[in-house]
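Notes taken during the Thursday session

The instructor put the following on the board and asked us to keep it in front of us for the whole hour. The protein is Polysaccharide biosynthesis protein. We were told not to look anything up and to reason only from what is written here. First, the residues (609 in total):
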Amino acid sequence: MGYKQRILLLVLLDSIIVSTAIFIASWVVYPNYSLQKAEVVAVSSIALLLFHHLFAFIYKLYHKVWAYASVGELIAIVKAITFTIVATGIVQFLFNDFTIYKRALIVTWLLHIMLIGGSRFVWRVYRDRFMHDKKNKQRTLIVGAGSAGAMIARQLKNEQHHNDLLPVAFVDDDMAKHKMQLYDIPVAGHTKEIPDIVSELEIDHIVIAIPSLTNGALSELVTICNSTNKRVQMVPKIEDIVSGKISVSSLKNVDVEDVLGREPVELDINSISEYVTDNTVMVTGAGGSIGSEICRQLMRFTPRKILLVGHGEFSIYSIDMELRNKYKDTAIEIIPIIADVQDRERIFEIVQEHNPRIIYHAAAHKHVPLMEYNPHEAVKNNIIGTKNVADAADAFGIHTFVLVSTDKSVNPTNVMGATKRVAEMIVQTLAKTSKTKFVAVRFGNVLGSRGSVIPLFKKQIEQGGPVTVTHPEMTRYFMTIPEASRLVIQAGTLAHGGEIFVLDMGEPVKIVDLAKNLIKLSGYTENEIIISYSGIRPGEKMYEELLGENEVHPEAIYEKIYVGKTVNVEENQLWDLISHFTEHDKEQLKDHLMRIVYAERIKRVGVAK
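Then, after some discussion, the predicted structure tokens were revealed:
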């Protein structure tokens, strides 16, 4: 039906209801009314008709989509009818010698509410009961009968033309809600009963609608849901809803990051604000996974200026546009800078021009096998690049320099880890004489970063498998990108100079278990997507460590942040490597790196002999 025909139909329907309701009310209240009263009723009928259409347009009763009518539409109807009756009463008062037929008007008001309201809401009842094809819909169980669950249920019921989910039941741990109904959907039981409920109600799809769940509790709940072998989705986390990233009604697939089982760390907002707010901060590698997230986290503390430094044009463009769109109403100056940390002159120029208070150095080559094949590039970027940025910080008196390091720098067996350990040595050496506070922050793998196993596994699952794991016993430490970035920022406020901060990574995770979880979360079984073992790649270790045996300092200085003991650095070997690394071939360069990294251990062995 077209717009004009629809309005004409509603106006005609209301006119019939309004014109006849007053006569019905008068006959009910005054069965033997006189001719004089009949005249008053006729005048009242005309007044009702005129005022109803006036208030109907004021409250837009002819412009609402009644198939989706709810409490708001009902309130609009009540307001329009009430003002119509009041205005008609005033007409009666003036026309009928200051007399109002109150009982007749009250009955008329009731008839209008029932007939006009009923004529509107019948469209929604008809749509909900008869228009929707409930066949071929996925029977959906909603976990959580709170406000988020209610919103999801209402959305699924209201938009059945646009989705293939049919909500049939809730589960909730609140016993007071059991056997109750929400939007005509029953609360079927406890979350522990999910497998039985899924079987009994022939559920095809599960939606977790508890955005405030901590990772540990979510992990347990997802394990229960996964045991049913049904597809599992969830509403976004509460921090994503509060930050405006996504709305509560937007469903998302459960990711490995969601079930990592780690509780979020509480940041010391005051100390971070003191360093960042109204100051200039610089992030190298700002287009990378960690660097870009550090930028996002820093923006929450309203720096005066943020320098996005990176070598990749598109990655810097992407984070620049993201921050500009999100913080367009703030006075924060966002400056994208294309620069290579290997270009010493360019780096000095940037630091001198902008004079940042803090530098977060996240630029690095991190891919282990690639760096095994390209050790000279690893030295140039991870060592020479770090020295260039650190020297610039020292030369221009920057307050704090934070090096983003890795657990692979501990007892390294590969080029990438060795170059990152040498980078740590460089900042530790500078910390001895510089007024700048030089520190390194060391952590393990981050889930979802470019080059990590998660994107690779997801791609392999999309292609139907197999998912390749190097070895069944291969383990790694994992944390999410946002958590790692927050802790890097927090560690910078704890710096006195020369420390290597180590982030608490929790318990190490077997890569094969990670692959199995991801297969289940993607809606498959291990029979559908098989796991194959490819063998350990060049330079890889079976297990990673966060502190060497001579660095261990067991007490945390902040929640999830430890500080390693400082070890002696052979400075002459550092400068010799930097000056002559181009003269070595691949194997000679690897040997030179390892001699520097293990110099103290070699010395101890020599003394022992």
